[in-house]
Amino acid sequence: MPRVKSQTCPLARSNPASHPYDECMPTTISSEPEVTSPPQDSFEQIKDLESQYVLQTYARYPLALHRGKGCYVYDLEGNRYLDLITGIGVNSLGYAHPRITKVILRQAGLLLHTSNLYYHEYQGRLAERLAKISGLQRSFFCNSGAESMEGALKMVRAHGNAVGAGKKGSIVAVENSFHGRTLGALSITGQPKYRKDFEPLLPGARFVPRNDVQALEAAVDESTAGIVLEIVQGEGGVYPLSESFIRKARELADRHNALLVFDEIQCGVGRPGTHFAYQLLDPVVLPDILIAAKPMACGIPMGVIVANDKAAAVIKPGMHGSTYGGGPLACRVALEFFDILDELLPSINTVGSYFRMKLTELMRQHPFIKEVRGHGLMIGVELKFPGKQLVLDGMKEGLLFNCTHDTVLRFLPPYILTEPDVDRAIAALAKIFKNAKPPEA
Ligand SMILES: Cc1ncc(COP(=O)(O)O)c(C=O)c1O
Q1: pTM of structure
Q2: Residue 411 belongs to a domain with what CATH number?
Q3: Could you tell me the residue range of the domain that residue 30 belongs to?
Q4: Beta carbon of 382 within 6 Å of any ligand 1 atom
Q5: From residue 6, how far is each of 3, 10, 18 by CA, in Å?
Q6: Per the structure, how many domains does the chain have?
Q7: Which of 19, 119, 215, 299 sits 20 to 30 Å CA-CA off 354?
Q8: Whose CA is nearest to atom 7 of ligand 1?
């Protein structure tokens, strides 16, 4: 629909003077980033400084990255790696994508942040785009996956309070799921190892085994305010939920007036070869609330809650908010990302299928590989033994991927991956698997 410039802001001056800082606006923007500046520090210096001053929460791999281009990323010495993990599914268009680089530079010269005290031109447009592609109606923007889960949980709680007279506070979630590190998100994360040090968490969480339709039916009742599903469990080892389980969750949420929440932070936003993983089902099962984050703004932090009218109605002015959420930079980049994604969806499907087919061929040659699974460009390779050493071997071969749930090699490559890139990855993986030493050998 063409945008008409008929409305002016009620506060607009009739003859705005040119602003003294107008001359700071960039007039020409090169689409090529400055990549020539060499790293200032050595790997040892970086590591030593972090070990002294950074909270010791991450077990990092022995690699410091300096720059990237396309599907490749380079370390401090200029060694090149084919990136099949993309900062855990975030660098969806790879590195230094010319269109993304251009809009970031342009927007940085115009307006980075407004807060939500004021309007800017991109938040509504992005919400409109999300409504069109999701089938839901309204968006709330925040800055990370966990934050979007927190907002969704507040909506579930508010819904329960509004319709349940204090007796509708329970949330049904799935064992082996992962929903983030904040207290609310941890409360419904179905892996005790993440929760144990922080208890007591939110009361009322009930966990059911993945794809156990009977257990789900037994867990949901009139006290249930929400059901939360991670359509493909990512951190839990790339396990898609079954269609019958998802459909039963929708049916039970309707029967007991609970809100159905889909967490598509890792598995959604183009990665499955559709805009969202629930769209792989035919007919589609719509949630009441969808949360997404990682790939949406190509590395600029952004999370979103997309709600249907019923769920959106529980949030009244002042009940939720974010200082940074939905800022002009992140929204502008996400709009550009969604434009590009439309062109990429077919190849996410074909390249993803090709990658899984090639991995399945490798599986036939190596009995220590139990299964290859996933959708689109979210792929897990389950081993019969812990996979960390293979990740390190991959780095030596110029390949980045990781291992989750101890035994599952996880691939979340950029959406611009091509079949020749897959061939390169498969050649390196063939070598890694050939030299792998299963513990029992
Ligand atoms: C399914 C899922 N939900 C929530 C989160 C939390 O997102 P963030 O790390 O951006 O807070 C993650 C992160 O990996 C995730 O995979």
Answers
A1: 0.93
A2: 3.90.1150.10
A3: 6-94+344-435
A4: no
A5: 9, 12, 22
A6: 2
A7: 299
A8: 145
